[in-house]
Amino acid sequence: MLTGIDHIVIAVPDLDAATRSYEALGFTVVPGGRHPVGTHNALIAFADGAYIELIAFYEKNTQHKWWEPLQRGGGLVDFCMQTDDLMADTRAFRAAGVDIDDPAPLSRVRPDGYKLEWVLSIPRGSHKGVAPFLIQDGTPREERVPRQHRHANGVTGIGAVTVAVDDPATVGGWYARALDRPGRDVRRDDLDGAGVAFRIGPHTLEFVAPRSPSGPLCDWLDVRGASPFAATLRTSAAAGALDAGRTVGARLSLVREEAQS
């Protein structure tokens, strides 16, 4: 069963510069380490157990699933869900119509030398970034996720991830079958969009399509295709959209905890 968002992924061209930018926005950013596939990361962990992964390439890897999105502007490129049964959820998404790989191992070496290990099930082709990738830890999760949860901007967790799609009915069907429950209709007048939303643990996933042939969702789909468009973060402090220059292209907004649906 899916239990909530594990983390959201923000692809950046320069990890050190992105770290400084997010620190200037009031986030506590912790160096993550290196993956053996040419990437390194920094992490922003929250009290709700989820985190933001800032990821960059320390060497060219055109086969990596986030290489092409980074060339198209980077920012929010993917999201990972926690599961208490990786194989069962992989089978459930596959049965629902998602093209998803069998679980495969990956690792990261932290700056202190500790080697983290986990297993991922990753969607393929056009399903990447619309269906989630799923994770199961081999080493303890508390070693993978930083223990520093306090942020000067008051952010305590992830609220919602909005994914731009062409066909919410099809995508909603995947999730309804995989979760064994229907979603709820959602209307986003601010984006001139509508679609379907699913609450999973403390988090919400929205799959929204444009209602007219112009607007931000149309522009996004033309350039990036169906993929994560924006995310909200819960805060105990001031709400509002974060400067996209500081977030390195990610559309992030802070929402007061009591206002987050």
General description of the model:
It is a single chain. With 261 residues, the chain is α+β, with helices and mostly antiparallel strands. The chain folds into 2 domains: 2-144, 2,3-Dihydroxybiphenyl 1,2-Dioxygenase, domain 1 (Roll); 155-259, 2,3-Dihydroxybiphenyl 1,2-Dioxygenase, domain 1, CATH 3.10.180. The protein has helices at 15-24, 67-71, 86-96, 141-144, 168-179, 216-224, and strands at 2-11, 30-34, 39-45, 51-57, 75-83, 104-109, 115-121, 133-137, 155-164, 184-188, 193-200, 203-210, 227-235, 240-241, 252-256. A hairpin with a 4-residue loop joins strand 10 (184-188) and strand 11 (193-200). Helix 3 runs antiparallel to helix 5 (168-179). It is globular, with a radius of gyration of 17 Å. The model has no long low-confidence stretch (mean pLDDT 96).
